Batch of 3 targets.
Target 1
Amino acid sequence: MSSFTTILALVVMGLVVLVLIRGLFNMLKGTDGNKSNKLMQLRVLLQAIAIALIMLTLWLTGGGR
């Protein structure tokens, strides 16, 4: 189970990076500001999910003890 949560956390962290890059490029192009805002909101949500998965993984593995 802990390896599953580790892999899932890594996938979500990768998604965070992709959404961040896409949001920054959208903002730099100066196109729709609403889309940039939605992408940054999605990034924050994905970061919260990644942190929760990391904490779950640490809890399942005993926190590195």
Target 2
Amino acid sequence: MTKFVIRWLINAVALYAAVWIVPGIEYIGNWTGILWLALIIGLLNALVRPVLKFLTCPLIILTLGLFTIVINTVMLLLTRIIGQSFGIGLMVDGFWSALLGSLVMSIVSVVMSVIFRDELKGNK
């Protein structure tokens, strides 16, 4: 359960960083909306992302893994669509803003995962 909460908070911080850094991504609302969006991202990454990676496996191999950036971009755009259907105000201007936002989110997630690696492994 602790791993889930830490991963959820990492997703929330990464999303907030993308909103703060990328000019084409805007969020209108309070901090609870960011937490809900982080939960949506986590669920999409757990359920949809493996299917997309399986279906695009030849492209991932052909591009030496760079196509996963496009998959991350699609995950952010899906999060926007699902969030807006629940009334959460995440706005992404287009594909390029989503691409830059997914890069920012990936970098922040990697850095925070390294910082919290002992908690995520379960070692103390």
Target 3
Amino acid sequence: MLTRVLEPEVMDTHEEALEYDAMDHSAVNQRFVDDLALAQFAAGDVLDIGTGTAQIPILIAQRFPAARIMAIDMSVQMLELARYNLEVGRVVRQVQLAHVDAKRLPYSASMFDWVISNSIIHHLPDPSLCLREAVRVCRPSGSLFFRDLFRPNSLEELNHLVETYTGGESARAQQLFRDSLHAALSLSEIRQLVAELGFDERSVEATSDRHWTWCARKPA
């Protein structure tokens, strides 16, 4: 197993935000929303942690008009692009943006029906802080839906994933993906964190050759 190598927690330069937004995340984002629907999502108050440029909240809002989404990120530059994307997607009334640290959420306990996130966990040196906060602000009987990369077992496997999924992207985009894979948790590591929060570790599953998904309901 490769050793975890941390990357910067916040991508907060204009160039990094533009590079990230220009990468083709369409298939991955659509899969996230499709799987969210399969998890019986339809409406309610949603917290999206680590929204980036708000590509996923836009898809959710367009598909589920009754959803109300608070989309948060630590990167000011990402949020600036997100504001533009919300205008283009015509969902500014459904999606609210906020500059918030996922490790210290300013929201009341049990505030949201759904707490979701795509690809924030690998950015955090101590992901348990974010996960605890997510559980805290999720209402009893509410749902948590997190997805992220898992760390490959070997450098050869990592290189194969980079070539397969970003081979047609810029050198910078390939390096960003490489760094993210190296910074990701292993499947066993995220399962251990979930178990420490009182959830069944089997609620974390490998859902692609590079992604894990945690889908769970908070006890009533």
